[in-house]
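[Q] Does anyone have a clean structure-token version of this?
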Amino acid sequence: MRSEEIETLFVEAEYDLLIEKVLMRCGVFASHGDYEDYRQELRLLLVEELAQATSRQEFLARYYGSRLFGRLVWQMKDIFRKQRRRNEGCGFEEDLLLQLADGRPDPLQQVEEAQRTRDFWELLAEAEREKLSQLLTDRRENQLDRRRRYKFRKALEKKAKLF
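[A] Here you go.
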């Protein structure tokens, strides 16, 4: 479709009302901070869909009934998913940069950690040591079932709290 046809169809069909309904369905209201951004995203998606059609009849045939509404809701959920994935990725990168900025661990901290580990090992009874070694080997080989891993881990966490 030509841009004039798209503009005419956009105005005639009042797709702004449809976009507002899609946003409300997705839980984005006028008071939301990104309301205008999401609204513009949906407008762009709608214009892209209109541009793909060769005529108005083809567009209306492709998106009869509530299919256009469903398509826009799906697109909005996809935008939310991408945004959430982008936000989650940022936190990981920041943590990684902080770890790299620290550089190597302090030798004094390594000695203290080794001493605490040795003290904890000596505190454990023989059966508890066996559980810990099974958990550590299972981490690589994955031989223990889920329940047994949970039981061993909880017992060792309880002992570590007393430590």
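[Q] Thanks! Anything notable?
[A] Residues 67-102 form the longest helix (36 residues).
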